[in-house]
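question for whoever is on the cluster today: can someone run the full assembly for these? two chains, 658 residues total. i dont have access anymore since they changed the login thing
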Amino acid sequence: MSLLQLQAVHKHFGATRVLEDVSLNIEAGERHAIIGPNGAGKSTLFDLVSGRHRASSGHIVFRGRAIDTLPPHEIARLGLARSFQISSLFPRLSAFENLRCALLRPQGFGLSMTRLLPRASRLNACADALLEEIGLAARRDVLAGALSYAEQRTLELGLALASGAELILLDEPVAGMNRREAEQAIALIRRVTQGKTLLLVEHDMGAVFELADRISVLAGGRVIATGTPTQIRANPQVQQAYLGSAMTEDTPHA
Amino acid sequence: MKHLLPWIVFALLLLMLPWLFPSVLGISILNEMAIAIVFALSYNMLLGQGGMLSFGHAVYFGLGGFMAAHALLGMELGGPIFSVTLIPLVAGGFGLLAAVLIGSFSTRRAGTAFAMISLGVGELLAALALILVSFFGGEAGISGDRSLGPAFLGADFAQDSQVYALAAVWTFVSTLAMYLFTQTPAGRMANAVRDNPERAAFLGYNVQRVRLLSFIVSGFFAGVAGGLFALHYEILTAQNLSTTTSGNVLLMSYIGGVGFFTGPMIGAVVLTLINSVLSHYTELWLLYLGLSFVLTVMFLPQGLTGLLMMHRTPWRRGRLRSLLRPYLLTGIPATLCLFSVFALLEMLHQGSGSVMFFGLALNTEQPWAWLGALLLAIAAAYGWRRSLPSLREAWRSASQEDAP
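^ ran it for u. tokens below:
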């Protein structure tokens, strides 16, 4: 059975229909990208899966369990982590503290009142290792709110990856990064999601085709195609939805 | 060893202060300070650490205090006899219980909703205090005798100085416990929820649980402070859980600096001094207190501790001395200006006759007294303003990185 299933999911905000009859299966272990023009409903889809908003109708099933009525923290505990398109950090905590907060629950610290953080050497080593891995070791003690834009994007990614969750949702992880930063981020995502399931929303077609095993195309609130990158490139409906812009510019036909 | 140093200094201060100020008034003020420190630290657990602005923190202080007063009264009336050293624990337990009940619904949201609920609960309890006479004692309050318990290490706690010893121990232990709380996962997640509750939820945390935990611990220590209050004054009235008391602890924390663990402690010491010393000299002390709060919010959003911490960089660079002259050049006219404004206020307050102001007899019927104070205020304000650019310049060069 698929790890994550969306079954006939609808979402409207008042009279505005954002998602209509979206059904998707995300298999365990795959890297699945969702692409589509602006306003196609990609971020809304993420918000429904992670529990930020509730679907107007339809079901979302994660690991065989309906999650469409659960609050975000319970969905997260089932093994789902997400990043945000606009960095959502703990601005008055240092980069190190941000990651340590993300590691607390996976490492079994929860909300303990009896364990002291300075003495949690394995936890601290993990946070430092992760900081090293995402390339922010030199900025360890800088407040997250004082980091540069690209650094905040990287830390955002780090928070999602720290959880060790089985399903990781990344909302435009390389948006606003330059080519070199994006390549580093992609390599990092590839490395850290080894053996995990990745659901990705991204505008950068280079990143999408480098990372994704399968791609779903969302346009006008509907899934118009799902398939391997090769199939998607060749799909005339997809090319029409994009009006030949991003697809033909960024990626030569195979 | 390095991180033990502040605690050794704190313990030594608690130990030595009664020798430096052995008078009855001195000991009494020290007791008030100890109570205020615990109360303000417990408040900052909400405001500074957890991002919850409470207008009703006196509820837990007051309820703890009333419980302590009842325990003392109980000993008098043939109830269980136990050592008064444990009174703060009884009070803390009751504060904790109240925090569990009230926090279970008030911590659902932070921000305005939390602030409004805290205000409502505070008003509600203050009103109840006058209605439920059996527990709160109505207008007269509840009083007890702290010297009826069994003696502890030869102390029967009849003397204020013995109460100080007890309060000092409780203050040290409470401060240490509240500091250690900030170093636990629960304390750190309170910071995270303060900064970004949504993100904390997506990390798998129930943000209400995180807030509630801080709220309960804070309620406990507010209760402990209330228990120490009951021991010191031996009487609790409705005033002690009113919004005035809640407002006072907010002022202490804010003037001291909510962004630092030590901020509320400094605020507690300074405000206790203002409350008890200034109120001896002038009836206008509440006005001055209000003014200092407004000035802090406007010019020192990080509080007094923030002001001290600003000087770390110049200090490390050895440039502190270069600030002395500009500080004097600004400080003297600023002080003169404030003093002449205060003189005017005191004369206004007096209305007729003469006012003693720092040994100066100001006759309000004489126009020259008014004119002199007014002219001095204007001249000093002018000098103050003129000195500011050079102060700014000196500050910039003292805190800047050395040019390569």
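summary bc i know u wont read the tokens: Chain A touches chain B at residues 50, 52, 71-73, 76-77, 81-82, 84, 88-93, 97, 100-102, 104-105, 109-118, 159, 163 (CB under 8 Å). Strands of chain A lie at 4-13, 16-26, 31-35, 57-62, 65-66, 80-82, 167-171, 197-201, 214-219, 222-227.
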